[in-house]
Amino acid sequence: MLTRRTLLTYSLSTAAVLAARPWASAWAQPAGDATGFVVQLGNALVGIVNGPGSYEEKKRRLGPLIEEAVDVEAIARFCLGRYWRTATPPQQQQFSQLFHAVLLNNIGGRLGQFQGVTFNPTSTTQQEGNSLVGTTIRRPNQQPNNVQWVVSQASGRPKIIDVIAEGISLRVTQRSDYAAFISRNNNDVGALINAMRQQAAA
């Protein structure tokens, strides 16, 4: 069975309730500032989650925001790993489309699970040309989680390309999950696409 642990699900869902404090000054930060970018994303998500509308309406509003803030296409290709080169062009297209859909479904499905979350940025470091924005995320009655948001400027503007939760890269984890699934299914990328199609329809 294909794991339902989809890239960025935990941390992007958590970002949807980054209401620890207003962060009003964050909007004045330069567009290229990775820390300000992460905080702005949290504010935007808060506006959707806590705003009016049905679950389906909020989910529809989340789509463009995630597309704007996250380099989903680059992450999708990374997660398919070496199988991207062996997939046919139609399979590549189907995989990318389904990756988008599954990611959004999983994020949307967890929007109500993070009441009482608090979020505090810690420090930002540079690594291999990317910015790692450190944060501490706390939930009631649970241990704090240390999360780093990996922000790339490769496209000319900041985009999230990975989330590292407690030292574990979620896109590397997802790539490992996909590779294991494909290997169990005779190295058939089509089997993964079929499984993801079921996830997207759930």
Question: What would you note in describing this structure?
Answer:
This protein has 202 residues and is an alpha+beta fold. The protein has a single domain, classed as Tgt2/MlaC (Nuclear Transport Factor 2, Chain: A), CATH 3.10.450. The protein is 49% helix and 18% strand. A 5-stranded antiparallel beta sheet has the order 1-2-3-4-5. Strand 1 (118-127) and strand 2 form a beta hairpin. Helix 1 crosses helix 6 and helix 2 runs antiparallel to helix 3. The model is unreliable at 1-8 and 14-31 (pLDDT under 50).
Secondary-structure blueprint:
Blueprint: H1 9-15, H2 34-49, H3 55-69, H4 72-80, H5 83-86, H6 89-108, E1 118-127, E2 130-138, E3 145-152, E4 159-165, E5 168-169, H7 170-184, H8 189-201
Antiparallel strand pairs: 1-2, 2-3, 3-4, 4-5
Helix pairs in contact: 1-6, 2-3, 4-6, 4-7, 6-8
Short characterization:
This protein is of the alpha+beta class and 202 residues long. It has helices spanning 9-15, 34-49, 55-69, 72-80, 83-86, 89-108, 170-184, 189-201; strands spanning 118-127, 130-138, 145-152, 159-165, 168-169. It has a single domain, classed as Nuclear Transport Factor 2, Chain: A (Roll).
Which terms summarize this structure?
single chain, 202 residues, alpha+beta, Nuclear Transport Factor 2, Chain: A, 5-stranded antiparallel β-sheet, 8 helices, disordered N terminus
